[in-house]
Design brief:
The complex is a heterodimer of chains A (114) and B (112). Chain A has no helices and 11 strands. Chain A is an all-beta fold and 114 residues long. In chain B, strands 2, 5, 6, 10, 11 and 12 form a 6-stranded mixed β-sheet that branches. In chain B, strands 3-9-8-7 form a 4-stranded antiparallel β-sheet, with no helix packed on it. A two-stranded antiparallel ribbon of chain B has the order 1-4. The chains are: A mainly beta (114), B mainly beta (112).
């Protein structure tokens, strides 16, 4: 079955450490997204990519970085510059150029500080 | 940019009672509208969507929503709540460029 796989499900970060969250999709979607979810705040967009080797900042990109070297993969790095990284991170994908189509989501990665 | 307002961050209903979750959006053009459900520690799952055509949209698990342009609303309803409906529900609006805008969510509790 096609879908989005996020790994790991749980991740712990030490002070000053960069960590990378994985997101892989086999839906053949061009567009991919990273969201941060905090209680009571809904989903906030971190980065999105509409095509390989191109990505744009979302509303809360500071302290995060991404790459899009392959269509299927859109990893997110939470850098040490992100002072409050504890959150639930969701990756999504959609068909590019078709905003009447829904976004499909992975099952998320929960990041905590040690 | 779009904005999405979900009235009521927490809603409680008795099992078997009507579920009504409210969503209002701001848009100067006809929007595309979506409802998602999220169970604990999981991603979002699409319940239903409105793009064009019939304003009453039926989704999975017995949910439906009605697009009312005059009220800029897209409220989610289910005639009879089930214990398994307890979850977080998100309304979303999309516009050009594949941008999605999500509401802050409504947590539904079903009381046995």
């Amino acid at each position: 079955d096609g879908g989005i796989t996020q790994s790991p499900k749980y991740l712990f970060r030490k002070e000053g450490q960069n960590v990378t969250l994985s997101c892989e999709q086999n839906l053949n979607h061009d567009a991919m997204y990273w969201y941060r979810q905090d209680p009571g705040q809904g989903l906030r967009l971190i980065y999105y990519s509409q095509i390989v080797n191109d990505f744009q900042k979302g509303d809360i990109a500071e302290g995060y970085s991404v790459s899009r070297e392959k269509k299927e993969s859109f990893p997110l790095t939470v850098t040490s510059a992100q002072k409050n990284p504890t959150a639930f991170y969701l990756c999504a994908s959609s068909i590019q150029g078709r905003n009447n189509q829904p976004q499909h989501f992975g099952d998320g990665t929960r990041l905590s500080i040690l | 940019a779009q904005s999405v307002t979900q009235l009521g961050s927490h809603v409680s209903v008795s099992e078997g009672a009507l579920v009504l979750l409210r969503c209002n959006y701001s848009s100067s053009v006809p929007p595309y509208l979506f409802w998602y459900v999220q169970y604990p520690n999981q991603g979002l799952q699409l319940l239903l969507k409105y793009t064009t055509g019939a304003t009453l949209v039926k989704g999975i698990n017995g949910f439906e929503a009605e697009f009312k342009k005059s009220e800029t609303s897209f409220h989610l309803t289910k005639p009879s709540a089930h214990m398994s409906d307890a979850a977080e529900y998100f309304c979303a609006v999309s516009e050009s460029g594949n941008q999605f805008y999500f509401g802050t969510g409504t947590s539904l509790t079903v009381i046995p």
